[in-house]
Amino acid sequence: MWGFSSFRPLQREAMQAILAGRDSVVVLPTGGGKSLCFQAPALVRLATDASSAGRVPSNRPERLGFALVVSPLISLMKDQVDGLRVDGVAAAYLNSSLTPDERDAVLASLRNDECRLLYVSPERLVGEGSQGFRRMLQQTGVRFIAIDEAHCISQWGHDFRPEYRQLGRLRDDFPDVSLHAFTATATERVRRDIITELRLQDAAVLVGSFDRPNLTYRVLRRGNLHRQLLQILERHAGEAGIVYCGSRREVEALAVWLQGEGLRAAPYHAGLADDVRSRNQEAFLDERIDIMVATVAFGMGIDRSNVRFVVHAGAPRSPEHYQQESGRAGRDGLPAECVLIYSGADFVRWRQMLEMNGELTDSGRALLRDMERYAAGTRCRHRSLVEYFGEAYGRAECGACDWCLKELDAVADSTVVAQKILSCVARVKQAWGIGHVSDILIGRATEKVVASGHDDLSTFGLLKDESVTALRGYIEQLVGDGLLTRDGDPYPVLRLTPAGAALLRGEGACSLYREVQPPKSKKSVRGRRESVVADVDQEFFDALREVRLRLARERGVPPYVIFHDTTLRDMIQRRPRTLEDLHDIYGVGAKKAADFGDAFLDAIRTFRRPE
Ligand code: ADP
Ligand code: ZN
Questions:
Q1: What secondary structure, in 3-state letters, does 331-373 show?
Q2: CB-side exposure of 274: number of CA atoms within 13 Å?
Q3: Is 31 a pocket residue for ligand 1 (Cβ < 6 Å)?
Q4: Partner of 305 for a Cys bridge, out of 293, 332, 375, 530, CB 3.0 to 4.6 A?
């Protein structure tokens, strides 16, 4: 049907829970294939359908019924329904974007038992005045209910939505229908909330691995942001990516600058007029734009699967957020890159902002510290993230992070350098911030340094051969390693921790690292990772992309709904000649082969490399 030859981890178990009518919570990372878990069971008859009168209206046992899918966003519903229809599945959604006629057609298809999956928003399902709607659903035969993005029910999730809270009443209205919650948010707390709020009974809890082996993680300290961005973009010419910024102003400025560099970029943030925002989003999904410069307002419901890089031009407020946002890269399983460009000041700004909104709770502070630890950390990034989510990491090296790729150079005499920094912090009585301390160490007689008499300290100019960026980097590493803390509002100051004091006394050792540039060209990045996907002929790939774009335009759907990049790559490697051959290609089901096969076979047959 979908043209996949095997299950992804936990998909089988998730489908079995649905088929057995057992409540479930399924936690899989972005791109883990959650949708298929509820889409496929919606098409097969449940084992219980025939025997249990409760699950199907008993007066019409011959009805197939449908799966009800709760989804928070119109764009998400539209995307999935478009995709299902291209695969030949009868699916529909009900939301405020439909005309009365369209809505009546959907309702008729339910009554006639001609719909296998119905997507609805929580407002429509359990909001005000929805009683009648639920009664109608009971009568037309809901087989099971899947709740997508179920973390929205929890205040501990990163995207709490009050209307999700009301979903608890589904248990009362559909007592015999099993409930299945799906989310990519991993924490235990969110999981517990979901189970409680939805009143799940004896739920199967399926939690997948949070590692995304196809993503390469890098962290850079912010220097010249434009130059740093260009270096990343050079590795991804013509590919899709997202650049996340902390503020609307930054979004606007970066988008304009990228356009000036001749790149196909557009801005996205909540302050743009609705039509501009949706136009830009459409353009990105339709591959008319490569780079989306955005605040975190851009994200959920972005199903473009061939996003090849996600850059954060500033630190997010928690590792959960980072995992979620960076996770939009490489959903197709092909190599993709996630770069965090940050400075210690980002965390100060976050603390101020949260404070201002009255959100600076203990947990908020702790999450910021966790994020800072990740950023300043000098160990495998995959390991850090996975362990953060409470999972053991089984590999010694990931081969896909700046640390394991040896893009960080160990500083000679690290311990001595660290002691010099710590001693300077002690000399200024642990009362000054990172800028002032680095000025002293580098030997810059700024007004502040002179006024406070710090140019007379023995530590003045002690590290004069270092660059400011490198020095600040070391200080942040010391914070990350727990040798220094950086606290206090509004001006955070550096203080020694007990471990830092011990190192200063000469107990123990530490290692500091300096960034070295990752490889410039796309080729060498890919070259290393040939095991994941062999490089394909770019011109051939572009030719197939053209065909895909044409078909997508004809149908008014985004290109990835036709075929993913993975499928095009597989075609290039295996050169199918017949429809028969085509069935063996990754992601090609019978319906798609019939609809699009000839167009692609033609293109493959006639492809000539331009002379
Ligand atoms: P999620 O909702 O978990 O982020 P999706 O359901 O969007 O993930 O699936 C991500 C991608 O993986 C989709 O392109 C989907 O077609 C593909 N996919 C899902 N299941 C499989 C499978 N068993 N084999 C190969 N590809 C799959
Ligand atoms: Zn690693």
A1: CCCCCEEEEEEECHHHHHHHHHHHHHCCCCCHHHHHHHHHHHH
A2: 0
A3: yes
A4: 332
Q: Which fold has domain 215-406?
A: Rossmann fold (3.40.50)
Asked if 473 and 417 count as a contact pair (C-beta separation under 8 A), the reply is: no
pLDDT tens, position by position, 280-291: 998 998 889 999
pLDDT of residue 523: 47
d(CA 445, CA 295): 38
Fold of 11-207: Rossmann fold (3.40.50)
123-161 tens-digit pLDDT: 999 988 889 999 999 989 999 999 999 988 887 666 778
3-state DSSP: the chain helix, strand, coil percent, rounded to 5?
A: 45, 15, 40
Shortest-distance Cα residue to atom 25 of ligand 1: 4
Best CA proximity match to 323, nearest among 158, 449, 200: 158
Residue whose structure tokens are 């980072």: 322
Alpha helices in 127-210 (DSSP H): 131-140, 162-165, 170-173, 188-198
Minimal CA–CA distance to 2: which of 591, 598, 603, 611? 591
Give yes or no for a contact between 398 and 215, defined as CB atoms under 8 angstroms apart: no
CB atoms within 10 A of CB 71: 25
Pick the CATH number of 538-606 from 1.10.150.80, 2.40.50.1020, 3.30.365.10, 3.40.50.261: 1.10.150.80
Q: Which atom of ligand 1 is nearest to the CA of 5?
A: 24
Residue among 5, 7, 36, 82 whose CB has most ligand 1 atoms within 8 A, to mutate: 36
Ligand 1 mutation pick, 4, 26, 77, 78, max ligand atoms within 8 A of CB: 4
- Here the contacts of 222-226 (C-beta below 8 Å, separation 24 or greater) are 222/313, 222/314, 222/341, 222/342, 222/343, 223/469, 225/313, 225/341, 226/257
State which H helix or E strand residue 86 sits in. helix 74-86
What pTM does this model have?
A: 0.75
**Given the structure tokens 């999935």, which residue do they identify?**
80
